[in-house]
Design goal:
7% helix, 24 strands, mainly beta
Length: 268
């Protein structure tokens, strides 16, 4: 299924609408198990299986917008593209997040993610990690950058990094599963997403729209693919571009012992 914010073209109520979308998505992605509070346990997975597949775009072509740069043009350039939908070969969707739901026991999480300010853009645009895993915000540009992470209407982190190659650890800010929208205080064309899952069973689609998740305990699972949304719905009062609600695609999949389950998703 997919979600569409349905907002009229023109001025959108940015922070309030963003908060409603993120809260709704938290329910869709299922931060907690049906039994209540969810706690993940690390165990040895001796007969785990693999989930692999692709996410491809089958909808109508979408135009690519850009925004003017009003400061630091010598470093940032004159305009910045808005890359809400990036396609690779065969219309593979780059930056979709694949989540295996409600895995209570499984492999050890080994995430160490970095959200970089690079060329006056967040890189990568979509970050996926596990709650409690190491996470940092870095600045690779020779100017002051900031990053503000919003989970619903709550500010999860807010950092300013003045120097090149400096970074701030935000691990303690990402202790709960959810969806975090990251924006810049001074550059409205800069945006990113951080998806925090309750287990290490996740992946972000690569430049071909492909993904692979290994060492999954055998069983029946609900798989969710999340994409940020790409149809423009105006701007907020701070000049940031606003888009439709993020899309979610779901599929029931059986993972057999020491086998590979392959699945294909279509984003429209």
């Amino acid at each position: 299924m997919s979600g569409d914010g349905g907002a009229p073209e023109g001025q959108a109520r940015g922070p309030r609408r963003l908060g409603m979308l993120a809260l709704g998505l938290a329910a869709v992605l299922g931060a907690a198990s049906p039994r209540g509070a969810f706690a993940y346990s690390e165990v040895t997975v001796a007969d785990g299986g693999v989930l692999s597949g692709t996410v491809r775009f089958s909808g109508r072509p979408v135009g690519h917008d850009s925004m003017p740069v009003t400061q630091h043009q010598d470093i940032c350039g004159d305009r910045k593209p808005l890359e809400a939908l990036t396609l690779g070969p065969d219309r593979g969707v780059v930056g979709g997040v694949v989540l295996v739901q409600h895995v209570a026991r499984g492999k050890r999480g080994t995430f160490d993610v970095v959200l970089d300010h690079r060329g006056c853009a967040f890189a990568p645009r979509v970050v996926a990690t596990m709650a409690g895993a190491r996470a940092r915000v870095k600045n690779s540009d020779p100017i002051v950058h900031s990053a503000r992470g919003l989970q619903g209407q709550i500010t999860v982190f807010h950092v300013a990094i003045p120097g090149k190659e400096q970074e701030v650890d935000i691990t303690r800010r990402l202790t709960r599963p959810g969806i975090i929208r990251v924006v810049s205080d001074t550059a409205p064309y800069m945006a990113a997403w951080m998806i925090v899952h309750d287990s290490p069973y996740l992946a972000v689609t690569d430049e071909r729209g492909a993904f692979r998740i290994e060492d999954i305990p055998p069983g029946d699972y609900r798989i969710i693919v999340w994409h940020e949304g790409f149809r423009r719905r105006g701007t907020d009062r701070e000049g940031r571009p606003m888009y439709e609600a993020p899309h979610t695609l779901t599929r029931a999949v059986t993972v057999a012992p020491r086998s590979t389950a392959t699945v294909a998703f279509e984003l429209k």
